[in-house]
């Protein structure tokens, strides 16, 4: 991947939900966390819409 910084517009992504019965968590992979190993981070992410089959973040 490559870094995306200082975007003027948000990036929206719609994902199909395969595992029902669990709550969706909006997050992205931050390659800089944990000394360069990377980890999930949710800052700036939010759920825009969700139904039984799809979630848009």
UniProtKB/TrEMBL annotation:
InterPro entries: Adhesion_GPCR_A, GAIN_B, GAIN_dom_sf, GPS. The keyword Membrane applies. GO terms for cellular component: membrane. Residues 1-57 form the GAIN-B domain. It is found in: Membrane. Keywords: Disulfide bond, Membrane, Receptor, Transmembrane, Transmembrane helix. Its main location: membrane. Belongs to the G-protein coupled receptor 2 family. Adhesion G-protein coupled receptor (ADGR) subfamily. This is GAIN-B domain-containing protein. The lineage of its organism: Eukaryota, Metazoa, Chordata, Craniata, Vertebrata.
